User: What shape does this take?
Amino acid sequence: MDNEIVLTGGTANPGGVFRIGDTVHRPRHAASEMVQAFLRHLHESGVSRVPTPLGFDEGGREVLSYVAGSVAHPPFSADGWVDDWATTDSLLVDVAELQAEIHRAAANFEVPDDVEWAAASGDYFPAGASGTLLCHNDICVSNVVAQDGHVVGLIDFDYLRPVDRLFDIAVAARHWVPLIPPGDRPRGWQDADEALRFSALCDVHGLDRKDRRRTIELATEFLSHARTNVRKLADAGHVGFEDLMASGYSEYNKRSVSWLLKNGTRIAT
Assistant: This one.
């Protein structure tokens, strides 16, 4: 369509997500109907800061409402920069509060036994992620839409899957604390106090010391597992993941895992 505007920033669907007026059209995948049903449930439960599900267009693409605002896009490298609005402690807490709100609503959502989940993520989920709560599982910086320093929307539910909620929290912590060695953090986050920010995120979720330690363990497991998964997806010809590997992801990932193994106990205390 002539009025389609490509929305950038995704890794799994580069060049495949479009804005048409106040709607977003995304490639359909095995779990698209489940995503639509879950988003309807969230809205019915009072969770408003997620896209409104609008079914599918004549081409079979999933249609959602467009969430207006600012999104901080990668690359988030040591020589890059994250906008000041994306690095504040208040926005981190706001992200965690929306995540907790979604968790509470998801507790009342029954997942059918015969759901076929999306395969675009490859082998995204480590063994420790196993659980029964339907979660977003990819609350990264570029999936959060903000206005005036506050979250107005969480987008891209392609990684929706039942998991242990601590896994969903671990992924969010990885991106928003961030659980990255200081030397690899982009400017704007290099001086962040990871222990204080992790504690603030965990406080929102009411995590005790045992759960905080487990969250750090899951973040470490997630990253270790992701290194193999990203390489496999790149080798299979997925362009977004090829670009990720070409940017030095493997060594970057290894440094993060090593740093977490050395500092995880301190961060989780």
